[in-house]
Amino acid sequence: MKHKLLFIALAACAMQTQAQQVLSLDSCRAMALRNNKSLSASRLQLDMAQYTSKATKTKYLPHVSAVGGYELTSRPISLLSKSQKAGLSNAGTNVTGAMHDDIANALGSLAQQGILTPDQATSLGGMFSQVGSKIGEAVNHVGQKFVDALNTNTRQMYAVSVTVTQPLYMGGAITAANKMAQIGEEMAQNNINSSTQQTLHSIDQAYWTVVSVKHKKRLAESYLGVVKKLDDDVKKMIKEGVATRADGLKVDVRVNEAEMQLTQADNGLALSKMLLCQLCGIDVDSEITLADEDAENLAAMASDETVDREVAMENRPELKMLQNSVDLSRQATKLVRAAYMPQVLMMGGYLATNPNVYNGFERKLSGVWNVGVMVRVPLWNWMEGTYKVRASKIATSMVELERDDIREKIELQVSQSQFKVKEANRRLAMATKNVENAEENLRCANLGFKEGVLQTTDVMAAQTAWMQAQSQKIDAEVDVKLSQVNLKKALGVLQ
């Protein structure tokens, strides 16, 4: 039965061990870089900038467009006016009518002169009237045929056109736009680097915070054990009459304080692990164990070598992004100026219509090709372009001032970070020495208490000093780690 219980206990421990994830600093970094939302958004911005750059390059190439349409009108297009149509349709009647009147007058005059008899004049007039009527009908028919031939039949119209445009000179606008797109792509990449640096910095801080709190929890457990040992000794001494009840109460208070410190350490560890899990992109309730939790010494003293500030100037993504902003502003000025420069485009195309306007409105889809050059030259705009260019240059100057200000702040940040590394090293050296002294002081206090030379308060004071020395050493070790991280971030080389 005992063997079965032992096997079950071992199996449970194994399952619990497997359930907990052991994470190193590198694994936490990898998960954070993979799951960070802002970093993913920065990568999408880079993709967008790349596509924008590709789209802008197409401005150099010819553009082809096609247009088609259908139109129904209430009346067709007329090449003749209503009076012209009426004149052509009745041309024969009008002409023969006038001739008939002239011939009748002439025959009447001949009859009055006695050259023709009235019967002859009447007979000839009737004959000419018949002939004129035939001629008039024939001419009317020809006129109507002409009117019909000029009928366009354009109530229903179809049109199809294909146009090709090729920019030849746009005042430098296309070149400026392409450079702006390239700069935007560089800015997006620098933004990724900035987000990466910030993510790694946050992960490092959260990781070492968890390790620090874990060590302080273990220290609180050790301190509680030491205080409880003293409490047991004092209780025995009270029974023996060597110690007083007041001594026992003092130790009880100290035990309660130690238990509260342990509780605070537990809560702090849980909260710090939640933050680390959130930054890593895993469930905040996940059971995790860090690889450095059980390390005896968290950090050794860092190097105090002087760093070159130019490294920060070359690597800080924030400074690179500001330089990108300056370059963008300069190209924007060129783009503004280009709007008020001459522009030259070459155009060509093909236009087809039905009815065919190029062949007597023939009911057939047909057309013509065309090619030409368009030149646009701004002549006067009331100094609008000059004012806009000046405003754009002022915007560039403002960005340059911001860049120079950030450069000075980065130099200060590097100097401060280097100073904090040196300060953390000194604190670690002093804290290590203080731990040695506190341990020796506690040993001597316990020995003196056993021999009856020292009081309970002396032992408790030694225990408190030991606790504070150990806690300060943990803080100093973590400060060394974090100061190194801060220095690398200030230099822009946090990887």
Mean pLDDT: 85
Shape: rod-shaped
CATH architecture of the largest domain: Up-down Bundle
Q: What's the Cα radius of gyration?
A: 51 Å
Secondary-structure-based class equals alpha+beta
Q: What is the makeup of the main sheet?
A: 4 strands, antiparallel
H/E order of the elements?
Answer: HEHHEHHHEHHEHHEEHH
Helical content class: over 70%
The low-confidence parts are: 1-18
Number of strands: 6
- Can you tell me the CATH superfamily of the largest domain? Outer membrane efflux proteins (OEP)
Cα end-to-end separation? 55 Å
What's the CATH topology name of the largest domain? Outer membrane efflux proteins (OEP)
CATH structural class of the largest domain: Mainly Alpha
Strand adjacency order, main sheet: 2-3-5-6
Q: Number of domains in the coordinates?
A: 2
**What's the helix count?**
12
Q: What does this 3D model show about the protein?
A:
With 495 residues, the chain is of the alpha+beta class. It folds into two domains: 73 residues, no CATH class; 280 residues, Outer membrane efflux proteins (OEP) (Up-down Bundle), CATH 1.20.1600.10. The protein has twelve helices and six strands. Strands 2-3-5-6 form a four-stranded antiparallel beta sheet, with no helix packed on it. It has a two-stranded parallel sheet with strand order 1-4. Helix 7 packs antiparallel against helix 12 and helix 11 packs antiparallel against helix 12. It is rod-shaped and about 185 Å long. The two termini are 55 Å apart. The N terminus is likely disordered.
